[in-house]
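cron nightly-structures :: item 1 of 1
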Amino acid sequence: MMKKLIVICNILFVLAGCTKQTIIDTGICSPYHDCSIMDYLRADDYHWGWTVKMIEYAGLTDLFEGKVDSLPEITFLGIPSMAVERLVYDYEVDSVSDLSRNKCRRILLQHVAKGKILKDDVGFRNIEYYINDPEQDGGTDITMLYGNVVRFYREKSDYLDIPDAGPVTLNLWSLEEDQQIPMSSADIQPLNGVVHALNYNYVIY
């Protein structure tokens, strides 16, 4: 009898402990930022510090601030700070300003397109073909300001073994380099365009 009573008391104790739920509200992550792309980058030195230095050194600050009349909105494939730092290290120099200014300008313009291109604006990949297959008729080819072409494309994913029930991702493929451009976050939207942040392991060529 005593054992039954102890078991019942333990069950009631556990049930009582389960009635209270602790909820931590982390808020909603908004993609919108009430500032220019340049100010957005400047606000996060850890992720974009070296990138900002490259933009300023290349003389492209006005472009990223939305002050170029012919380019009021741009799409920036956000080169992460670590990628720029790695480039400086590979060239065995001390800072971005030790690199060729024209090289920095070329690198940046290879990652900027005219207008605001969001994930939902581009086509899905035709899954019948590899993304670089000549027969590939999906995705959207975007010519960047430098003249290189990047293939933007969306892909569906599975969820719990349910085909195409998972999130839709934005992916990038460099047609010049014939390789994937690793993405981190899409559709970050300051006032003068959109930033598609690239992954830390991105290598600048």
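cron nightly-structures :: done
Residues 58 and 100 are 9 Å apart (CA to CA).
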